[in-house]
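Figure S4 source data
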Amino acid sequence: MPELKRGTILYVEDNPDNRNLIRRVLNAEGFSVVEAVNAKEAIDKLESARIDLILMDINMPDMDGYTLTAEIKKMEKFSKVPIVAVTANVMRGDREKSLEAGCDGYIQKPIDIDTLSQQIERFITRRTNA
């Protein structure tokens, strides 16, 4: 396990099995993971922790990930935090819809746990080099 923390990820996901899997994979790669199960909790966590990247589930019951992404991007202090859509929506146009909502990237489910860490690292690096 890497000794240096590679960044803090906020994972917004209502499914506990998905949260558990992603937390375990990212922790093993040296990332710190903060979890939120809905929009309100996600905003609270953004306010209370230094977040380097947000993994955003699109299909959530209270407020979908598109709407939450747009709300976060409107907030000046969080507008530069990269948001990556994580979704099973893989129909034609779904990627574009995520990007139009303000997401900086798109990862489709089922997540390839072998490449997840590298995908996240690219978004964090892009942010710090911008």
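Figure S5 source data
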Amino acid sequence: MSKKKLYWVCQLAGWFVYVLLNLLFFVLQNPIDLSDLLIYTAWVPLGIGITHLFRTVFIWLHIMQLKLYIQIPLVIIGSFVNATLFYFGQYLLELVIHHASSQIVFIDSIANIINYAFVFFFWSLAYFSYHFLINYTQAEMESLRWQANIKEIELNKLKSQLNPHFMFNSMNSIRALVDENPSKAKEAITQLSNILRNTLMMEKNKVIPFQEELSIVNDYLNLEKVRFEERLNFKMNISSAAYAFSVPPLLIQTLVENGIKHGISKLTKGGEILIDASVENGLLQIVIKNTGSYDESHVSETGFGLKNSKDRLQYVFGESADISIRNGENNFVITELRFPKYSSI
């Protein structure tokens, strides 16, 4: 039902019920004739006309956009004005229908106007409360849309940071192969083209299937394997349940790249990259181990990859996502991620 239709339905129903109750009390105390019935029936359009005029004036003066401490006195004053109009409207109906004038008693008139003022005040209270709730709901929705747009902008910003960073490292790996081993260079170019193709396709996606992310990681590690040769070894141990999850694009690749750049590449003998993925308590748990050491006093050295990943996890999964990095046994740095299945709701 539209707001306009709802307004008129409530107007008719509300005034009809009010008049019906007044007529019932009148019948219990007095005999009723056709003229009395006509007068009470005329109350309905009279009340609707006065309240609709009151509403029109308030909208025209933009009263509902004022502060609450200004609105309340205006509503009280308006209720008394409406009550006065309603009282004298009744008086005119008496004159027209009964064809007789009755003397206005000041005290009785004031008492009736006060009683009617309560009626119009409750009408105003119901009307303004409804619009307050509607406006509050719309403001909340606008706020949520604004927050969603901000998150979308931030995610796009993070993605734009990832692509140049990834490209720079990959092209360096291929450049080293061009003269030394052309066949391997061709293979590396094919792997890079696969990564770029997937990257272009996922540009508009917040998340991609975990299996696609692993395919990118595998191509990336093979590219790095060409550069580091026997100095780099990698292994993946993936649970079948993990493939039901989705991850932000290039998230795992960024962390693997971070481990190679700040860990293995600094070691003369190189090292290993181990990737484990399993599902625990409904959360996908990914453990990335790389040879090296993590110096917590110089976090800025690994700032880009880790901070970027933390931001993206928070934007996509909220508080339920977690990422941590620490030194483990056997000269390994351990990066752990936990996050639930992605929901677009």
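The chain has a mean pLDDT of 82. The first strand starts at residue 208 and ends at 209.
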